[in-house]
Amino acid sequence: MSKFKKKKGGEIPAVNTAALPDIVFMLLFFFMVATVMRQNTLMIENNLPFADQVEKLDKKDLVMYIYAGKPSENYKQYGTEAKIQLNDKFADVNEIAAFIAAERASKREELIPFLTTALKVDSDANMGLIGDIKQELRKVNALKINYTTKKGSVLGRN
Amino acid sequence: MAKRAAPEVNAGSMADIAFLLLIFFLVTTTIETDSGLNRKLPPIEETEPPIIKQKNIFTVLLNGKDQLLVEDELMEVKDLRKAAIEFLDNNGDGTCDFCNGKKDPNSSDNPDKAIISLKNERETTYKTYIAVQNELVAAYNELRNTRALNLYGKSFTEMEANYNDVNWPGNKEKLKEQIEQIKIEYPQKLSEVQ
Q: How many independent structural domains does chain B possess?
């Protein structure tokens, strides 16, 4: 009759966690593949504006990044006005020419005409600064630019 | 000697190790934005600006308070696209046989002559400027899309996407010609005043 004996206490069996490592590994691989290590540590607020007519920037190695925005919380001592950041430090407008020259020197000569300058500018920055940057870029003949934006509708956002 | 079975390795902490790595990558990941509006700056050389008829210029002014003045009238950003399309597609002199505009003699002659001039002040905020740029690019894209649909049965943005797609099976040479054709018919003439 022991065949029909009820199990003692009716405990819930432990959940089998053998597949847990597999799941975690899956996530891990996703993030490993999706990760792009940041090249520059941002010292500014960089809340990009929205646009919906965007084109994708391909060939990452042919892009020069110029950041601008007001200094972030940790760098308040540099003031509250929007500043330019090149590589890992704040820069003045007239340092852009040297920056572009350095970037060009690090690339192969035949690739230089394809270099694009990506302007990653905070949405609250004013156009005066950007006008200055553009003027500086024209002086060194770096004419291809890209206003980096997030993808989304422009209307109804303030 | 009796053969001993090797004891099984305890894999219980593998999940912990994997979690550790996972958390590291989670923290360091920044999904970078790598898309935006492509523009070309004018070269700096001093050439005499050609004389352009006032009716062929569509002036867009952005003041320091982010207000928009289009052809001497206040306008909201959301109405800009439509106004720009009307201006570009106007076909005042009737030389453009594919335009659908109103043929208003006081607006632009044809898409090839029509120029959009954008002027901003130093105090204009960047996001408004981008919104305006976006709307103007959208106006051009919309016209090009309609034209491409009529000519080749697919939109201009789709054609460009196909052209940049490495795996696209069609004839790229021909596609490039078609894209160039559309670009000649609706050239993007957007000038910025310094």
A: 1
